[in-house]
Amino acid sequence: MDQQDRLMQEIEARREDLTALCQDLIRIPTLNPPGDNYRAICEFLERRLTKSGFECEFIRAHGAKGDSDKYPRWNLVARREGAHPGDCVHFNSHTDVVEVGRGWTTDPFGGEVKDGKVYGRGACDMKGGLAASIVAAEAFIAVCPDYAGAIEISGTADEESGGFGGVAYLAEQGYFSPQRVQHVIIPEPLNKDRICLGHRGVWWAEIETYGEIAHGSMPFLGDCAVRHMGAVVHEMEETLFPALALKRTDMPVVPEGAKQSTMNINSIHGGENEQEADYTGLPSPCVPDSCRMVIDRRFLIEENIDDVQAEIHAVLQAVKDRRATFSYDVRELQRVLPSMTEKSAPVVQTVARAITRVMGTDPQYVVSPGTYDQKHIDRIGRLQNCIAYGPGILDLAHKPDEYVGIQDMVDSAKVMASGLLDLLGPPAAAS
């Protein structure tokens, strides 16, 4: 029996362990915001990986967005050196999960197993992928203990809120420099037969319209900022959204609707602040003098970021031309340029061969509709040999009753381990 077959058998033998590991990770409620239990999950990973010979380092993202003494942004980087010189393969997974939301029929942090699936917040996005990468690495080490190079596994913070307290910080500190790491696989849930090459761009901004406060019984003495914002939304509906629908990309973005430019209105807040939940009185009768809207604009590799911004300013200017007292500000919150790894990159070719070996099918190459931490590895780390590959169905991310299939985790772990055999195993194991 060759090493490839032995490796597949080794992972099959670890199916129950893989399932239990995913359950244990789900049961640590790493909600972001605010950033709960980051240290706890890093300590859990340290206990697990130390047993497999990894040297673990805790890194707090001091000064990064979101980091505070109350909610410190903790990250773990684990590294295991091989017996001979060679490349480093790094598996990066974010440990944070989004809010639970309503509509669950299972315990969001129970890790319940039902019908071959593990349920819970983060099961799909992306604790199932983290568990699969750990088991893949451990199985590879067991079968090929004299491997070359190094294996790294990281559990990082804040991907769901931009990754600035996680991968961005690590990249700034040199953890993703091409001299240290040569291949990166991010086990995001893009389906087990897909290789995700990158993502669209994003521009987040806050638009604030201004008015003049007055008594609500005499609104004619004031100037309603909410009505001004309503005019902005109307102009977007009439001109911007139809224009975005006409922009198309050659990037293999999934799902189909994301092949066009999109914009989401994240939130609108106008008037006085909402009171605490235990407040039983009525609001005061005031004309709102401020209204704020957060927009989330996703753009294509064919678009220029300056043009993306100019479209918003054109909307606002059109409103200003019609409303004599209209005034506003625009504040940029975040910008991320599109990223896409070439199909010819070594990590892409390696994982493609592994998918074909394990699943008997050619991989599908896709691009994510939303950004993930590849943006920081690419732009800050200057490492382009990076992909997303992992178990789970993208459409389940952030949904109630989120789950990951156990067989999908097993198959993805086989692909990851097979890729390790190609990249770090003895020459006779490569194919």
From TrEMBL:
Its cofactor is Co(2+); Zn(2+). It comes from the Bacteria. Residues 198-320 form the Peptidase M20 dimerisation domain. Keywords: Cobalt, Coiled coil, Hydrolase, Metal-binding, Zinc. The keyword Hydrolase applies. Residues 1-28 form a coiled coil. InterPro entries: ArgE/DapE (IPR010182), Bact_exopeptidase_dim_dom (IPR036264), Peptidase_M20 (IPR002933), Peptidase_M20_dimer (IPR011650), Peptidase_M20A (IPR050072). Gene3D superfamilies: 3.30.70.360, Zn peptidases (3.40.630.10). NCBIfam families: DapE-ArgE, PRK13013.1. Belongs to the peptidase M20A family. This is Acetylornithine deacetylase/succinyl-diaminopimelate desuccinylase family protein. It comes from Lacimonas salitolerans. The lineage of its organism: Bacteria, Pseudomonadati, Pseudomonadota, Alphaproteobacteria, Rhodobacterales.
